[in-house]
Design a protein that fits this description.
Elements lengths: L3 H6 L2 E11 L8 E6 L1 H4 L1 E6 L7 H4 L3 E5 L5 E3 L2 E3 L2 E2 L1 E3 L5 E3 L14
Antiparallel strand pairs: 1-2, 1-4, 2-3, 4-7, 5-6, 8-9
Length: 110
């Protein structure tokens, strides 16, 4: 169990994917994403192993939920600046966590 104060420390925010690139250097198939979290947080980069369910074209403009206050993480030659969240399907693919309705970039999960 964690306390409510612990949960409040995690910044889960909505952002819009504005750029998608292949990531051939990754050990597991992945994309390099740029996600716009609005004026307060800005644009952050993320590596996401979501190639089973998503093509680059379908990801552009998609809103996603991400942790924005982890420290940067080196993934091969790439530095990931946020963690895009997803749920593993029964088949092992990652399905992104997204809002049902469009919301302003940077809004926090409450």
């Amino acid at each position: 169990m964690i306390s409510w104060e612990d949960f409040e420390k995690v910044e889960l925010r909505i952002g819009t994917i504005i750029e998608v690139n292949e990531f051939p250097e990754a050990r597991k198939p992945a994309y390099k994403l740029k996600v716009d979290f609005g004026p307060e947080v800005g644009v952050r980069k993320s590596s996401a192993q979501i190639t089973d369910l998503y093509d680059p074209e379908t990801l552009l403009g998609k809103q996603v939920l991400a942790v924005t206050n982890f420290p940067p993480k080196q993934i091969g030659p790439f530095i990931s600046e946020c963690l895009v969240t997803g749920i593993k399907t029964d088949e092992g693919a990652i399905s992104l966590v997204t809002p049902d309705n469009e919301v302003s970039n940077g809004q926090r999960l409450i």
